[in-house]
Write a structure and sequence with these properties.
Helix content: 25-40%
Strand content: 25-35%
Number of strands: 14
Order of helices and strands: EEEHEHHEEEEEEEEHEHHEHHH
Oligomer: single chain
Shape: globular
Number of helices: 9
Strand order of the largest sheet: 1-2-3-4-5-6
Length: 256
């Protein structure tokens, strides 16, 4: 799996109640995104005989940074990449970035995106389209933390509807085949909510059926794609910030 020179792979580790820790692998090196806890990551990396070279932090919440300190004790050479504007809340960062910055990790180009809304300072990390050396397909990858979810988006704990709507518009402009690696397994709940609003929506129904099947089999419903979200995510489909605000308020007060 790891012998192709120009190829990378992405692996998800479910932890806690519904978090997903993503691990980006190329060759014998790995980058971890938002490690909620450390132990499962340490075990996985060691079992795969991989070296941790970096940790990407999307935002400061403890279920995203809780395992970082332990990981960098095990791999002290690993770089912790986070928002410079959030240095007071992620003080162990060693490379501070902001939206618009470019990164190169393991030979992979990566763009830092400002996607505030869930929190005042929230980043996403985007690997632009590139032909995969294994199967020849063009692929792009997005690690978006708690901004965009399968069928949903993050709650507005600090940001405003205007900020989140703008962030979702930015992500919606990415290529439709971009694989979206969000940090929580919320897809089923989000689609049940969407179907409660639009009970006759065929696309939402069909996706929910697929999601139910995957969950019954113990599989993740993530990654999703930008195209899938355009079709079935009500927040992405919102025509303006007013509609988005109404949907977000409805979702905040909805119970399964």
């Amino acid at each position: 799996m790891y012998k192709e020179k120009n190829s990378y792979s992405i692996h998800g580790i479910p932890v806690l109640k519904d978090n997903i820790i993503w691990i980006l692998v190329k060759g014998t090196e790995a980058v971890v995104i938002d490690p909620a806890i450390a132990k499962p990551v340490e075990m996985w990396l060691k079992n795969q005989n991989l070296k941790l070279i970096a940790v990407l932090q999307t935002h400061h919440h403890d279920d995203h940074i809780g395992g970082t300190k332990s990981l960098i004790k095990q791999w002290p050479g690993a770089t912790v990449i986070a928002s410079g504007a959030d240095r007071n809340r992620i003080p162990f960062q060693t490379l501070s970035v902001t939206g618009g910055d470019d990164l190169t990790l393991m030979g992979l180009s990566m763009k830092v995106l400002d996607v505030a809304g869930h929190t005042n300072t929230h980043l996403a990390y985007y690997i632009p389209p590139k032909k995969d050396s294994v199967d020849g397909n063009i692929k792009a990858s997005l690690f978006c933390g708690d901004t965009l979810f399968g069928g949903g988006c993050g709650r507005l704990f600090e940001g405003t509807p205007e900020k989140m709507y703008k962030s979702l518009r930015l992500l919606n402009e990415l290529p439709e085949n971009t694989k979206v690696y969000c940090a929580h397994e919320y897809t089923k709940s989000n689609l049940l909510w969407a179907l409660s609003i639009y009970p006759k929506d065929v696309l939402i129904k069909k996706r929910l059926e697929s999601v139910n099947k995957r969950r019954e089999e113990g599989l993740l419903t993530i990654p999703t794609t930008i195209l899938e979200e355009r079709k079935t995510n009500l927040f992405i489909r919102a025509k303006d910030v007013e509609e988005f605000s109404q949907l977000r308020l409805h979702k905040d007060n909805w119970r399964e």
